[in-house]
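Subject: CRM domain-containing protein structure
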Amino acid sequence: MIIKGKKNRYLRSKAATMKPALQVGREGISENLLNQFETLIERTELIKVSLLQNTAVEPQDLIDALYEFDTNIVPIQTIGSKMVFYKKASKIKNRKYSLELENI
């Protein structure tokens, strides 16, 4: 799934003020990292990830790993070592951004 146009701009604007909720460090992409990512994105729908300087992980590596883990995770933006991802929450009570996206 790819989000374009106004919907992508809306999500980027919401992520601009967010602090990274997850950091990828020396350990790289592990099962623990993927599970933490899944828990966080299921709760918030929109998440910012930071790649630390001591990691060997490239942004495209993380995108590929997350896509293999769950095909519903959508990369919204990558600027340097900061990345923003979106996934529609399965629980209705956690849907904040997806309800707004339906109205755009």
